[in-house]
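Quiz preparation item.
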């Protein structure tokens, strides 16, 4: 099995395992502390103030001197991967 095929197979297994772990994970039953409540309210307020929109990924990347072109698109998954 070639390295590219091994990598793709590994990615597929990881994604399947991740999906299964998420689907079977127990609900978070830990109570929120006041600090958590305040943080949630600040984040909800931030989104409300911006019409429910976040920061475009292009803007975040530009803060680090990067562009989407620096991450080639994987056509099979519609994802971008960093060049290492």
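Solution:
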């Amino acid at each position: 099995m070639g390295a590219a095929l091994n990598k793709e197979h590994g990615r597929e297994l990881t994604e399947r395992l991740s999906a299964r772990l998420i689907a079977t994970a127990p609900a978070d039953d830990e109570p929120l502390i006041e600090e958590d409540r305040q943080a949630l309210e600040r984040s909800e307020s931030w989104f409300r103030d911006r019409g429910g929109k976040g920061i475009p990924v292009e803007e975040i990347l530009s803060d680090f001197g990067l562009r989407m072109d620096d991450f080639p698109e994987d056509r099979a998954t519609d994802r971008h991967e960093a060049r290492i």
